[in-house]
Amino acid sequence: MRQYWKRFLVFFSFVTTVLGIAYSFVAVRLTVGLVHPGLIALVWILAAVSLLLAPLAFALRMFQVPERIEKIIAWTSYLSFGFFAMLFALIASRDLGLVAVDQVGGIVDRFLPWRDPANLLHPMHREFLVATSNAALLGLAGGMFVYGVIRARAIGIERVQVPIDGLPESLHGFTIAQITDIHIGPTLKRSFALEIVKKVNNLKADMIAVTGDVVDGSVQQLRDHTEPFADLEARHGVFFVTGNHEYYSGALSWISEFRNLGFQVLLNEHSVLEHAPGGNVMVAGVTDYRAAEFFDDHRSDPALALRRAARGSRSSKEPHVKILLAHQPRSIAGAADAGFDLQISGHTHGGQFFPGPYLVRLQQPYTKGLHRHGDKTWIYISRGTGYWGPPIRVGASPEITLIELVRR
Fold it and tell me: How many domains are there within the chain?
């Protein structure tokens, strides 16, 4: 655990440095063509304040401060960071486009020496283009920002059919309601949990899968805000696996709390559901892919989950379909090797907003949706039910998923 926090401090310092460079880049590019000292100073002040708010919001979560103060700073920090992140992506894309045009112009000039050099290569022309396009990019970032804030809490119902080879007729139409990456914490509170519970219960699913990252904060801070999840209802109950943010927030305490809420917590183990005569479903769950960095005995292991029955699970009947709940899509290789028919995951948020979808693919094999992995195993990755950090979603709306098993 101590080794993890040392790595975390190094990572936090690295991220803060990178963010400082990114904010400085945005400020430098936005001030191109500005001549009024007051406007230039304003841009730099806004960039500096936005940068400093991010570690301040994080630090407040480590200490007991009035919830009202924490909420104000958290909202201000995350909103400003989200806007700057969008602006950075747009400005960087614009500048990369200018570099590409410059390169094309240089190639044209090399092979057509008798024509005038490409006008865009002239520094004055480039500076004018940057200055005039800044206003357009600010407007575009503002529009995306407002849209993203509105969409962040607009939870939709995503209905997915998964065809399973050899599925018994008695299991055709078996439904799983998935919620994941809710992130109850600084900006999402009890009212959001109540909304989720209402929508999930209206689906009347056969079982509910909660695939991690439910919280961002300690049990002491968030117990009242997660209490509504005790009212989740399904024929076979609620099954939970840990995500990385549970470990950031005190995983052992949250595991105990979720059990108190009526969740069946699966820690590299399984339970067999006797759904109908000739129709049994194995629901297995693994700890987060990187859980071993916190506790050695929490090492994620799909093969162990296949072998080990959860406490209180009494069925010894052979399952007709095997489902693995795993927070991160990266568990799919182990799931496929172990012989699972379906893995249900979250973690990626579908990228949440540009350029998130492209960054996710640097770490995860899949970003969102249903995919076939190998010859036998399906994987579904939810875009998440809440959000993390900036309360913004563009191109990756939040979802509650209703997965239906069907005969192939």
Answer: 2
